[in-house]
Every structure is written in structure tokens, then in C-alpha cells.
Amino acid sequence: MNNSQIHYQNLIKIGEDRLNDFFKNVELFESQFKYQEVNKSCYTKMYLDQLNGDSYRARQDYFKDISDLEGECKKCWKYYLKPRNKSIKGLDLQLGKILEEIFIDYFKILKIKIIRADLKDRRYPDLLILDGSKEIIGYIELKYHGAPFVMAYKMRPGRECYEGSITLDKEKISKQIKIIYGELDRPVFFVHWVDFPCLKGVFFQTSEEICNSLLNDTDIYYRKHRDGDFEEKKDGSVKKVGYIEKIYPSIVEMGNFEHLIKIINEKK
Fold first, then answer.
1. Phi and psi at residue 81, in whole multiples of 5°?
2. What is d(CA 251, CA 152) in angstroms, rounded to the nearest whole number?
3. I need a labelling partner for 231 at 20 to 30 A (CA). Which of 4, 49, 99, 132 fits?
């Protein structure tokens, strides 16, 4: 295993008790928040071997190369194709805070100080990075992705579920980019905690890369509205709280966990 995989395993290990407690009454996909032999092979074949490639191999092409992947894919499709619980924003926010705490605690082990940034201003990215003198050296917007977009190949020709399931809200990201360039004057990393049945790890993009995606207006998809996208207010009116215009950047064009840690250490 390379260092990025080791870091990821250690990350989920220190968060194991908190995650088990949070999901004690919820039935998760069997490999969620776990790291198995098939995931090690998927990281090498689906990510490292395809970095910055011009096209993406179909997931079925990997069955002969990665032991147990075909069986994992069958379980994944059976689980993620059927309707699941509708998005509940309150629970999503609670899980997000737990994952942020785990992320902060892991970087503390690495002697890197990260604290909540959006307590000062809710418009800011989730986390900020400090150096030894408590000066801000960067920000992190942390996103968790656990449900692969298994029909990616149909919705967007040439894309695959293992690399094209990272989901960003175009409207929300556009607002954040304006704040980043207008107010923060520090590097911002969009960090993706990826927990698919096949490919798992921590990957990241810079704000510059996100900005280029917005300017090029690529990989846009409009999903259908869900009940969780709307919130009824006390006066009986309904407020839209979900975004339907999505951007799907590719994992194989992103940096990995080890690279992120190295960049932060260099800025210290």
C-alpha cells in the first residue's frame, strides 16, 4: 500500500467508534467506512493507473484485473439502484460535523492544526489551516461521498461510476468561489472523502481547478427534485434548500491524501 491508502485507513480507524455510534440504528452498505483488499486494488487500478488519462475504462473491464470486484459491483448496484431514504438535511449536517471532527483529529496526529472556519462566517469553507504561530495558511471545504452514481455511463457518455460520482452543487460552489477570491486571499482545498464500495480514499482539488470547471461549464447535470430539497417554514411557506444543478469532476484528475498533507506541510 502507498502512503495515501495508509492515511485513509488510519483516518477511518480513529473515527470508528463515533461513526458506529451515529449509525447504530441505521443499516449501511456493508463496506461503508471500511477498507478491504478489493479497495486496495481499486485504488491502484482505477486511480493511480489512470491519472490524467484521456478516457476512463469501463468498470467491467476491471473484473479480470481485480479479484472480488465483480461481486462487489453486483452488491453495489443492487443496493444503490433501489430507492433509499430521502435526503434529510438535518442528519446530513450532523454527519458532516462528525466527519469534520474526525478529519481535524487525524491532522492533529500529523502535527497539523485545523479548526472550524465557518463558525466565524457561515459563508466560509468548513475548515481553516493554521501554522505554528496561528496564522491562517489555507482553508478546506470537506465533502463526503458515499453513494456512487451507478448510472453515470448512461447520463454522461464516456464517464464511469467509480470516477464520476463526485457531486458538487454548481450554485453553491459558484458563491463560494466569489468569496474565496474576494475575501480570503488564501489557498482553498476542496477535499473529497470518497467511500464507494470500490474506490475509497481522500482526494482534493484546488479552488483554481474548481474555478476552471465553472468557466468551462463542463460535466453539468440536472437531477430531479427530492422531498429533502424543500423545507416548510413556520408561516406555511416552502423554502428551497437543495440544489439540483450538479458538477461531476473526475477523481482521476485530483490529488491524493499524501499530496494534500505534503502541500500543507510545505506551507507551514
1. -80, -30
2. 14
3. 99
Cell numbers given for 139:
482553508
Angle (CA) 144-148-99 rounded to 5° is: 15
Q: State the DSSP code for 55.
A: S
3-state secondary structure of 200: strand
* pLDDT tens by residue, 161-171: 999 999 888 88
Which of 25, 16, 33, 38 is CA-nearest to residue 198? Answer: 38
CA dist 197 and 211 (Å) reads 29
Concatenated DSSP letters of 208-264: HHHHHHHHHT-SEEEPPP-GGGEEE-TTS-EEE----EEE---GGGSEEHHHHHHHH
Residue 197, amino acid = P
- Please state whether beta strands 188-195 and 136-145 pair in parallel, antiparallel, or not at all (unpaired): parallel
Model confidence pLDDT, tens digit, residues 66-84: 999 999 999 999 999 876 5
Task: Give the residue from 101, 85, 88, 106 showing the smallest Cα distance to 14.
Answer: 106
Q: Phi first, then psi: give them for residue 100, nearest 5 degrees.
A: -60, -45
Residue 73 in 3-state DSSP? Answer: helix
CA 220/CA 240 separation, integer angstroms: 20
pTM: 0.88
DSSP-derived 3-state class of residue 96: helix
Contacts of 233 (CB under 8 A, 6+ apart): 239
> Residues, the chain, total?
268
For residue 87, give the DSSP letter.
P
